[in-house]
Amino acid sequence: MLSTILYRSHLSDDVAEITLAELADKANKVNNAFDVTGILLFNGTHFFQLLEGPEDAVNTIYQRICRDARHHNVVELLRDYAPSRRFGNAGMELFDLREYGQATVLQAVLDKGTTKYQLTYDDRALQFLRTFVEARERENYFEIPPADYWDFVVDETATTAECSLPAFGPYHFAFQPVIDPFGRSIVSLEALIRSADGGSSQHYFSQLAREDIYRADLESKKQAFAMAKQLGIHQQTLSVNLLPMSLVVIPEAVDFLLREINANQLVPEQIVVEVTENEVISRLDEFQAAIKQLKAAGISFAINDFGAGFAGLSLLARFQPDRIKIDRNIIRDVHKSGPKQAIVQAIVKCCSALEIAVIAAGVEKAEEWMWLEAAGIFHFQGALFAKATLNAIPPVAWPEQK
To answer: Are 397 and 369 in contact (CB under 8 A)?
Structure first.
């Protein structure tokens, strides 16, 4: 099966341009040995390369490329399959865009190809190539420094709050902050239900009978609010997760939440109810009525794990949340994935137009954070800054430039 990988990258500052011809010559030899062909474009700053060949061979070559120190910010734009090679004449043909005039450069590149259709049938790989040649994609480039550009340092002077309340029944909670890294502030705390041994929410709910899950989900928030009071969250917002159907199956759900918020000297305006997008909502009208009741009482509404399920845009249009958290599966290695970058940029643009706050959740790598910050996201949650901690507010590791 003929596979295609297409990527762009940034030339490292310490690489002399006179080595580019040598680079192409070595690539030719390696690629020929693997039956891989393609084209390498260079515009003075960025590389754009298309690789074609047997899938395993293309993957092997691409992994070698990713480890090459002569370039950085390698972003995979396309991974696809094709019936024939688009550039099949050489293992790797180098094309310096600076040697051609603006009016003729695209055709000069296409003339290197071996496909008989060129742009006739809107081939995606060739459309990427045209966009690069015509320099129409630069507004979407976010160049980030290497990961070791930052240290992440825990503020030793910050006080760490712990909760000594006994559990009300089997309910336990871990707390994880949402932070503004450059503002060096905790903007919100999330209370995450845990099993007695610290297991995940999925582990906790798996131990319950199906008919007991929604009642337990709702009643556990009594413990979350009591712990938040003892931890002294003051005027910070507190996010609690609810299964969407907990608001539907239990008719008095919103009234219960309001009673427990008031009993713990909290106010509805500082509470955010998060529902997970990938949970199936089977009674949408009743769910919408519950959301209206929440909002009317002052409680904010958020969609968690946005992008993980099947109904993200539909939920966004119908329920207008106050904030969303982008799912970890989209955040993971976003600095290396063109498709993920395009999705995040679309989410940010859409939510900006709707005045919906965006949080990047599950951030674990400095490169992820740097790219997301460049894309216009300012609030983050994840192990890079602070791990969820049972019965306590964890200390935050703030970024400090080396």
So the answer is: no
Q: Please give the CATH number for the structural domain made up of 2-140.
A: 3.30.70.100
Highest mean pLDDT among 86-95, 158-167, 248-257: 248-257
Task: Please tell me whether the overall predicted TM-score, pTM, comes out greater than 0.85 for this model.
Answer: yes
- 8 Å CB contact between 134 and 106: yes
Architecture field, domain 148-401: Alpha-Beta Barrel (3.20)
Rounded distance, CA 291 to CA 274, Å? 11
Report the distance separating Cα 47 and Cα 77, nearest Å: 12
- 10 Å Cβ neighbour count for 77? 22
Distance CA 92, CA 73 (A): 21
Sign of dihedral through CA atoms 105, 109, 112, 117?
negative
Name the most confidently modeled range: 19-23, 167-171, 210-214, 342-346: 342-346
Please report which helix (H) or strand (E) contains residue 315, including its range: helix 312-319
∠ CA 17-60-33, nearest 5°, is: 75
Dist. CA 173–CA 165, nearest whole Å = 11
Share of the chain above pLDDT 70, in %: 94
The residues facing 66 across adjacent strands are none
Cα radius of gyration (the chain): 26
